[in-house]
Amino acid sequence: MLIRHYYSIVGFASSQIKQNPVVMTKINRVVRIECEVPINLNDNPLHWYRRVKNGALHRVSYLPAGSGKQESETGFTATKTASGTGYKSVLSVSKPKPDDTGDYYCAYWDSSGWVKIFGSGTRLIVSDRRTAHPSVTIYHNPKNRELLCVARNMFPDVLRMTWQKNDGSGLKDVDQKTVPTTIQEMKGTLSSLIISDKNGTEELEKYVCLVDHESYQKPEPFPVQVSTKAGGNENSREAVSGQVTCQPKKSNDSSPDTDPIKKSELLTVSLSYCMLILKSLTYFGIMSVIIYKRSSQTS
């Protein structure tokens, strides 16, 4: 019973729940946060949670199954409608304040009733500040088949970064099962590291870093240009590619270093990736032990 109680509080994120990565609104303007789930909300309840900076998850709305009365905090309302692939729920914030800025998640219990399934979350930004385009830089290492796409100096500081590859017939999403991809967020900078399945300059130039940000009307593609000199333009929509290793400055060059990613920052990003992988392995080991003990008790 002790193990079951521990296991019942575990939550998992699911790619089957669709949420926009970021929604931005001005102060006191009604904002709506959408969530699509693959279950029938007439038969299953839905929960909405909020997590503000340095805070814990806090439920702000509850939609019971069927036509039961919803339970929501003041200023929040939730609705549900049928969609083509399942059901959609919309959480409305009537008069948002800067304090309402945070991450909002929809969630439901799985069929066993032991595990709660969460969406990826939507970052709500409540501010009268104007959006700012991200500055995107792509670093490459042809020998090790590595590509690093880095976005920084954007507002809001949330975006979605994916990789595509030209297979001869057009750009296609990279299969993360065959091509390792790692996402890391640190101090307002988002980076994505990818390892190509083949090496060589021509192969790397087939890749495109696709950036989806609130300041763009649609996702912007940033192609890999191996022949371009290293560098970067702040708040620019143009991609600049360069070698991962920093080139030494000439003795007669008095101009400031315009490269937005310094060697120390690249080292920090690399260490962050290693820690992320170690954390994932540790989490996998703990969950494997819990599942094994649970299976042993039920058998």
TrEMBL record:
Residues 31-106, 134-227 form the Ig-like domain. The chain crosses the membrane at residues 270-292. Residues 225-234, 242-257 have a biased composition (Polar residues). It comes from Paramormyrops kingsleyae. PANTHER family: T CELL RECEPTOR GAMMA CONSTANT 1-RELATED, T-CELL RECEPTOR GAMMA CHAIN. Its main location: membrane. One of its GO terms (cellular component) is membrane. SMART domains: IG (SM00409). It is found in: Membrane. Residues 222-261 are annotated as: Disordered. This is Immunoglobulin kappa light chain-like. Keywords: Immunoglobulin domain, Membrane, Receptor, Transmembrane, Transmembrane helix.
